[in-house]
Amino acid sequence: MIKKWRPFWSYDVEKTEHWLAQMAAEGKKIVQVNLLTRFFTFEEAVPGKAEYQIVYDKLKSPLTRTLEKSGWKPKLEEGKWKFFENTKDTVRAYPVRDGILKRNKLHATVATGVSFFSGAQALFMLLLLLILLTSGEGFEGSGPFGIIVSAHLTQSVVIMFLAIYLKKKIRAFEHKYFNTGEDVLKTTGETFSVWKLSWAETPDLLEEWLSDMALRGNQFIGIGKQNGRFNFEKGEPKHVSFVYDYQLKASSMYYDLHKSEGWKLKYTSTFSITKQSIWMKEHKPGEKKPRFTYEPVEEKKRIRKVIIGNVLSILFPVAVSTFLLWIGIPFYKEEGLTLLIKFLIGVIILSMALPIRLVYRTIRYGMRMRHKLSNLHRI
After folding, report:
1. Reported confidence tier of residue 255, pLDDT bands at 50, 70, 90
2. Angstrom distance (rounded) from CA 22 to CA 31
3. How large is the C-alpha radius of gyration of the chain?
4. Distance from C-alpha of 123 to C-alpha of 196, rounded to nearest angstrom
5. What pLDDT is stored for residue 146 in this prediction?
6. Is the separation of the CB atoms in 81 and 75 below 8 Å?
7. Does the entry feature the keyword Transmembrane, yes or no (predicted)?
8. What is d(CA 74, CA 60) in angstroms, rounded to the nearest whole number?
9. Which element (helix H / strand E) includes 24?
10. Under a CB-based contact definition with an 8 Å cutoff, are residues 233 and 190 in contact?
11. Which residues have CB under 8 Å from 378's CB, separation 6+?
């Protein structure tokens, strides 16, 4: 028996499947997977060609006839995980991937939430340590409190990198199997960029601005990694409708549905818990602007999701800043308002000003859209 440790195998199943095929070619057949310790157990066998597919199935559904005809056979089952093997030269059908995507998305969401919470705690402890180190009372950072802060900070960094790793793997997995990739425009002419900050809080103004840019011959390419850098290519004027959409959970069908109706995905958020996206669709002059829906009820639902999602995401840093101010009151009273403490309080208060302004902009957006829908209803 041979044992191999792969701690993150379930977050990159495609790589794991290739690895299992390679092990089979070397004469090592999989016989067990320990879900707790993450160890794979192999036994010696005759080297041979085999293809593997890993499925996460909560319902434990039986193998379909189509997959059986394609040569797939159950090789191993551990908990909700199923490992299928295929020794045919040509494979025409493959098991579905939805279960893995849903499971890994849930893990990534939890890791992201924990990293935010843990990061806020670590930030407070760092501020407290900085105050104690500069208080002039001979506090030694190498003591127990310094060790606790270092351990907590290390834990926060590890969780943060785990969340980023999961998001990257999920994004690559979605792009390959679920058609969630952005529709990238191949540029042939002159390009330029325009910085537009806090654009997500005013979707209606964003959509109008992008449509106006297209009418002036500036075709939207996408948003850069900086998230506020809008890239354009100079070309012929076009009539284009844009839609900013917000999804708490965006399934693979969400992308397939809109793309099948001619919409092009120009942006989708990468590392946020929720999904923000910008879609575009060309139309002829004089035609009604394409929209996801013309029904007022459905449009209200979409607007409500945008407002609630934006407000909650904006209020999080305000809540963290308020918590830091509140939890530090005893230390402010004990140490007095030293220059360092005044500086830190000022930084925290300033960090609250921008999110509050963004909340105000989001509320104004809701009021504009309510007025617009009321006028449409009268018509």
Report:
1. confident
2. 15
3. 26
4. 29
5. 63
6. no
7. yes
8. 12
9. helix 13-25
10. yes
11. none
